[in-house]
Specification:
Elements (H helix, E strand, L loop, with lengths): L8 E4 L2 E5 L5 H10 L1 H4 L13 H16 L4 E7 L2 E12 L5 E8 L8 H15 L5 E6 L4 H9 L3 E12 L2 E11 L8
Parallel strand pairs: 5-6
Antiparallel strand pairs: 1-2, 2-3, 3-4, 4-5, 6-8, 7-8
Helix pairs in contact: 1-3
Length: 189
């Protein structure tokens, strides 16, 4: 079963961005295991169960419930049948805020090919056109210059530094915060 109502995008070279499905748990766990060392400096410590098909199945069930409530939109980046990245809009809030938070990663052997930028561009278009969000936020570790470049190329502006913002790689880490304003129409327009 597909999680959410986002559309699939062809990013070129056989790579596509598509909505996550609940049966992606095996492919996701394989990708996360393969990329564990690559992602370790940028991610929270996770229990070993997280990297198992069962752990990912549980996570996808939670995401499906959050997606049904309109609070999350998850995508997979695929090269053929291999998962090579993830993008997720989380914390979607409606009402006068109309905002969400963007997170993403790309496999080590797929970095430097413009896939992160294309993924972010697609997520922003979906957030603006289908979800009608006013604002998308994102945060990076201060030394994650590559991710900051991806955000800047997609029109994000730096809005500040949040001290000890997230528990990443075993410690509370500062994050540079960014936002992208998508439209100035009234909520729901």
């Amino acid at each position: 079963m597909r999680i959410g109502t986002a559309e699939t995008a062809d990013l070129g070279g056989g790579v596509r961005l598509r909505p996550v499905r609940e049966d992606d748990h095996v492919a996701l766990s394989a990708a996360l295991l393969r990329e564990r060392a690559h992602l370790a400096p940028w991610e929270p410590h996770r229990p070993d169960f997280f990297y198992t098909p069962e752990g990912q199945a549980a996570r996808l069930r939670e995401q499906a419930a959050e997606a049904a409530a309109g609070r999350v939109v998850p995508w997979l980046l695929e090269d053929g049948d291999r998962v090579v990245g993830v993008a997720t809009l989380t914390g979607i809030v409606r009402g006068p805020l109309q905002s969400g938070s963007l997170g993403y990663w790309v496999a080590a052997d797929h970095t430097g090919r413009g896939l992160a930028g294309a993924t972010v561009a697609h997520v922003l278009a979906d957030a603006r056109d289908r979800l009608r969000l006013h604002r998308v936020g994102a945060g990076t570790l201060p030394h994650n210059v590559a991710s900051q470049r991806v955000l800047a190329k997609n029109g994000f502006e730096r809005i500040g530094l949040a001290p000890r913002y997230l528990h990443i790689a075993g410690d509370w880490r500062d994050h540079v915060l960014f936002q992208r304003l998508l439209h100035d129409g009234p909520p729901g327009s």
